[in-house]
Amino acid sequence: MIEFSDVVKRYPGGHEALSGVNLTITRGEMVFLTGHSGAGKSTLLKLIAAIERPTSGIITVSGQNLSRIRRSALPYFRRNIGLIFQDHKLLYDRSVYDNVLLPLHIQGMTGHDAGKRVRAALDKVGLLNKERARPITLSGGEQQRLCIARAIVSRPPLLLADEPTANLDEDYARDLMDMFKAFNQVGVTVILASHNQDMIRRYGGRTIALANGRVAP
Amino acid sequence: MKAWLENNRHSLGLAVKRMADAPIASLFSILVIGIALSLPAGSYVALDNAGRLAGKLSPKPEISLFLKADLSQDQGRRLTQRIASLTDVAKARFVSRDEGLKHLQDAGLSNLTAGLDENPLPDVIIVTAKDSDAKAMERLAEQLNTLPGIDHLLMDSDWVRRLAALLDFGRDLVWLLAGLLGLALAAITGNTIRLQIYAAREEIEVSRLIGATNRFIRRPFLYFGVLQGLLGGLLGWLLTSGGIYVLEGSLARLALAWNGRIDLHGLGPAEGAILLGLSALLGLIGAFLAVSHSLRRML
Ligand SMILES: Nc1ncnc2c1ncn2[C@@H]1O[C@H](COP(=O)(O)OP(=O)(O)OP(=O)(O)O)[C@@H](O)[C@H]1O
Ligand SMILES: [Mg+2]
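That is the input. Now the predicted structure with adenosine-5'-triphosphate docked in place:
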């Protein structure tokens, strides 16, 4: 499903975040992305979602060569990916409910069906009782879960999560991990960036370790 | 289809919300647009009224030929017959200097000539043209002017023609004004939209990350531009009508002093609709340019 060959990402300013990454992730896998801070985990996820473009090398996602993807095709490509951002990227001028509705709205889904899906997603992350609240009034962990609800509401086949459990206590973190596991069991490909080694050991999926922009053997 | 409608309803709602969120700025933009529009609209109305007034003053298709003083009455009458036989002439009437004097006296203006021992008036031939159209009159006048014995000629329609030319010039001026201010309107809209985009940049960024097309992002801003243009157009219409209302009283008094009556015409429903349509269109264009430019830069 995802293939990197000799991918180099150099940010403007000259810093090389990834230097020659080769990897393959097949459909239906659950993968942990680990590595020290600054290792390039977020960069790798951004490349998969075509938020950043590689400096060199080839990235293929679902058969699409991301270096060649047309700008006008980008929105439709992104709709197949549920993104959970390290910094949430919530919209603070609208309610929790409207935040989760946004992806559906963008895809042209409205009305009763959309409402049902939004509530189902909020229910999954335990925020159904806060649907009228503003995101700013939520705790860090609740904001994280809101971000997850927004990512899963359109039921994408690929889920990318950047440090989804970073702000959560043990119990909630475990709940969330169970959730990701459940998504994975119904066929969703899940890629999680995390440096919580305990967690990774406990869930024991495939692990890709990054160190200084390279995949560690 | 339903989703499309819902999307547009939502975009309109968003546009209204953005406008309401910055009421002072919105009001200011609308005011500027309204005033900018009321200038050409007001000039148009003024010209329209002047044109109507000019239309009421239909010139008689008459040319007065003043004969040279050394021409005898007989020669004058013969010249009259000759003129009457021209193809473009409907009628030619000889008014001798004595008759002219009598007319003056009948009109109670005898004291004008009282001190003179000789009649100062020339013999006159009054020619009525077959065709009252300005060009035909002009041609006829030229033809008559070449006849011997004519001192000079006077056309009733001269000043009406001048007025018509002046009105034509005014109309061109209004179009020029309208074009310039239309450009200004599009620029104002573009600028407010730019600020709107800046305020909403986070929302735009997030929307893009989760698969929003440019069209989706652009739509609420286009609605905003149209809405702002429409409200500005409406204000321009109101300002124009208000101006007429204010001027009507003093103009009516002025007309009364000249024993006349003036009916001022404002912008009719059709003209108003055109004004609104144009202002909405210019708002749309300004918004489209601003959003397209910003979106390209944000990538
Ligand atoms: N937009 C950017 N411009 C310039 N340099 C960047 C940018 N984003 C990341 N970098 C650099 O690239 C390197 C990798 O960053 P990245 O965010 O991928 O690390 P990470 O593994 O996600 O770290 P963390 O665990 O702290 O989130 C870092 O050294 C960082 O400074
Ligand atoms: Mg990171």
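The first helix of chain B runs from residue 2 to 21.
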